[in-house]
Amino acid sequence: MTPAEIVLAGPVTRDEVTGLCDDVRALLEATGAPVVVCDVGGLGPPGLATIDLLARLALTAKRAGSGIRLRDPDPALHALLDLVGLRFEVEGQPEQREPALGVEEAVEPGDPSV
Question: Does 98 reside within a domain?
Fold first, then answer.
């Protein structure tokens, strides 16, 4: 099934957060998609308002039985999300605990076998 998509353009004000959450909820109800792809490339410089928005969108999606995936996040947004402890799946990145394609793990001599 194809994921639902929403484009977030910024800067986003606190007053717009509730409306965007309603948009995500309606999108999920209409499509039944397992994940919402949020294009965050147009949000501009990230700040705590952006973090608040993404956290609320993730909670809205989770309550609907879905999840959030980010598209085109700014490296600063990625760093800020890490700083506050929020983890989001990002398009084009391998899933957590899954090695990137073409990467082999090296074994050091003397390492105990698992």
Answer: no
